[in-house]
Design goal:
The chain is α/β, with parallel strands linked by helices and 486 residues long. It has one domain: Alkaline Phosphatase, subunit A, CATH 3.40.720.10. The strands form four sheets. It has an eight-stranded mixed sheet with strand order 5-4-6-1-7-10-2-11, sandwiched between helices. Strand 4, helix 5 and strand 5 form a beta-alpha-beta unit.
């Protein structure tokens, strides 16, 4: 920046698990993203944007640091990003207020080094009905395992002078995490995009000086919650979703028919529409406050979602959920819209783009006068993505439903290059390779059985930014299971 703390605000909105294919921005038949389309008309749309990984932790780490997955190696909750490598920390050092707002535990609860990059962290476990009463989380973390932690909490609640409020805090802390799916909707914790949009806007109104924030909406992450925006699903599909013992493994394991997974796409579309509505609330409020034209707005997704689509590398494998389908198109092709007064309205970029360029893009906008013709999300070289396969904890869960999970544990790498008709994808998944042509968010086909991936991937070196993460408490573990993580 020219002077400390004088650059534009930075707003990153992550539509968690939203693939390009199901956005009307990319031609989806349901009108899921009308506001994102209008925002793209004010700024720049990247038609061929790719996430760096297929899981929240690997993708967000790349998004925040600018390191590729093969450089940071942070692919599961046993890993932790060491301090000092994110764009948020650099902005804070330059005088920015930083905040993250999300129901995603990888961003706000798990000790994986992502929440630590922010001054303000607003997540599910950060709020209690009575903040001045006893906080039950202190006892989960500090008192160890076993009944002793509960007895210690009860004693503290009784001795606090606010026993009723403390006990209500305890119930609100445990019930939603342990029995969320069994509670009536009126008693469930509000984890919606509406809540986090409101919390961000309240924070923004109080900030004195430039700010940089990440708002992550989880509504399109299983379970798909569209609320009043559920125009294509309905109660029958909601009941089907609630009845599932496992959001992923029942399908490849044969415990449920694939048509049921495919049917849930209707609920997914409603959840995307809900995220779009809350994106509108945020951006239009910033406009009303006179802040929009002094803010860099980036809207994207950390990865996509699978509803049974078949792999072109391994046709016997079908994509369901995320993080377990190699590097399929449905998991990596994501929306990317950027708005800033320096960008020409309605600009569309067809070249392959990478979310790993987010830190460099931010720095290009906050370091003086940005070049309106520059497309910082388009790298000089190829776009890459990677996965290590399902992590050790998820492997245990998968074995409850599947006899053979070897292919799901195999690493995969992809290299994207631009062509006259779209994108060419060289991909390797375990011992299989393929060259795939991609025209848009739907059309893709296999071109060849061989792909040159090594020449690009071998250029990446371990950055030495990975450490071992601390164990998580029981409540967070149960939250992860509710979201489909083992």
């Amino acid at each position: 920046m020219d002077e400390a703390g004088t650059g534009p605000n930075v707003l990153l909105v992550v539509l968690d698990s939203v693939r390009a294919r199901n956005t009307s921005l990319h031609g989806h038949h349901n009108e899921t993203t009308p506001y994102l389309e209008s925002l793209a008309a004010e700024g720049r749309q990247y038609e061929q944007a790719r996430a760096a990984g297929t899981e929240s932790i690997s993708s967000h780490t790349s998004l925040f640091t600018g390191y590729h997955v093969r450089e940071h190696g942070i692919t599961n909750r046993r890993n932790r990003l060491t301090d000092g490598h994110t764009v948020w920390e650099r902005l804070a050092a330059d005088g920015y207020h930083t905040g993250v707002f999300s129901n995603n535990p990888f961003l706000t609860e798990l000790p994986v080094g992502l929440s630590e990059a922010f001054d303000t962290v607003v997540g599910r476990s950060r709020e209690l009905p009575y903040p001045d009463a006893v906080n039950p989380k202190d006892f989960v973390i500090d008192a160890g395992d076993g009944p002793g932690k509960y007895l210690a909490f009860l004693r503290a609640a009784i001795d606090s002078g606010r026993p009723v409020g403390s006990l209500v805090n305890g119930l609100s802390f445990r019930l939603p995490d342990r029995y969320e799916r069994r509670l009536p909707a009126a008693f469930r914790a509000d984890a919606s995009a509406t809540r986090y949009a409101e919390r961000f806007l309240a924070w923004e109104a109080d900030v004195d000086g430039p700010w940089a924030a990440c708002v992550n909406f989880m509504d399109a992450h299983f379970p798909y919650e569209g609320g009043s925006h559920d125009r294509w699903g309905g109660e029958e599909l909601e009941r089907l979703q609630d009845a599932m013992a496992d959001q992923v493994w029942e399908f490849p394991g044969g415990q449920r028919p694939w048509w049921q997974r495919e049917a849930l796409e209707a609920l997914y579309d409603g959840a995307i529409r809900r995220c779009d509505a809350e994106l509108e609330r945020i951006v239009e409020t910033l406009r009303d406050r006179g802040r929009l034209d002094e803010t860099l707005v980036v809207v994207t997704a950390d990865h996509g979602e699978g509803f049974g689509e078949r792999s072109l590398v391994r046709p016997d494998q079908r994509c369901v959920g995320h993080g377990n389908g190699g590097l399929m198109q449905e998991l990596l092709h994501v929306p990317l819209v950027v708005r800033h007064p320096a960008i020409e309205a309605g600009d569309v970029v067809e070249a392959p783009a990478t979310l790993t360029a987010f830190p460099a893009a931010v720095e290009s906008f906050v370091s003086g006068e940005p070049d309106p013709s520059a497309t910082p999300f388009v790298p000089d070289g190829p776009v890459v993505a990677a996965t290590d396969g399902i992590d050790p904890d998820t492997q245990e869960r998968a074995r409850e439903f599947l006899d053979d999970i070897d292919v799901l544990t195999a690493p995969a790498d992809a290299v994207y290059t631009g062509t006259d008709g779209g994108v060419e994808k060289a991909v390797r998944w375990g011992d299989r390779e393929a060259l795939v042509a991609v025209r848009d968010a739907r059309a893709r086909w296999r071109v060849d059985d061989a792909a040159d991936v090594d020449g690009v991937i071998e250029e990446f070196e371990d950055r030495g930014v990975r450490a071992e993460a601390d164990d998580v408490d029981d409540a967070v573990q149960e939250r992860l299971e509710d979201l489909g993580y083992a």
